[in-house]
Amino acid sequence: MKNEGSHISSYTSHAVVLIALLALTAISVAATEWHFGAFTVGVALLIASIKVATVIINFMHVKHESLFIKAMVSGVFVLFAAVIVITFIDYYLR
Amino acid sequence: MKVPVTNSKNMSVQAIHNERIDSETGKLGMWIFLFTELFLFGGLFLVYAVFRAKYSADFHHAAEELNTFIGTLNTVFLLVSSMTVAMSITAIQKDDKKLALFLVGLTVLLAGLFMMNKYFEWSHKFEFKIYPGSEVLKNLPQGELLFFGLYYMMTGLHALHVLIGMILLLINIVKIKNGTVSSNHYLHLENSGLYWHLVDLIWIFLFPLLYLIT
Residue B42 and residue B34: Cα distance in Å, rounded? Predict the structure, then answer.
């Protein structure tokens, strides 16, 4: 007897997500060789953020969670980014 | 609240309903805990960002000491382990106990490989007397000293999380074996999986910050 409403992700979908994550890692490693100057940190963090979002949405199953959990998780991550960015800018422009 | 019981069919429907609510609230609690973990590491990320801006040349120089290959390999281990733990939930939902056990076991193995790599990486630095409080480290420029301090603090705290994650997954192996975790009740595995994914998430940020941005 299964819990009604709990979504069962397929093995294939998990494997596809892994391939995407590995590809992003390869891009991230290769990008360090290209040197974007001042943007190097930005590019690395952008790729890392895409990877994190991919893990949260797919592996952490947020895609199939209730609207409440979806809203809470995205809200907290926006807050997290805001805390880091605003505090850093405050320090940087002092 | 008393639930009027009319027949056994209604009872089982009620039981499923309760199980759903337990699962929802259980997961909600886990997410709230994960948020506190996120902000714990967030503080360290911020300290890193500030000192990196202040001592960018020293950070650049010190980061070159780190082995990108080992860092990349460890990233691959953690990404694959994140997939195996996610797949183990699919397996338990499909009532495939054997496959679920195999996948959780594989996750623990990959975590072990990650820790082994970390052990070799740290030992290599210790050989060159680069460890917190060493004379070599004290004589390095201020920025490099800060970089290695943050490196040990962040990777050390992360490694502690890997160890805790391994223990949680091992408990799941026991629970799957004795039937406490099954296709009807798998919240424990789901929450341990969420914890394991957090370990992966933290590493996804640590890897470029420490190993790639040189």
Answer: 12
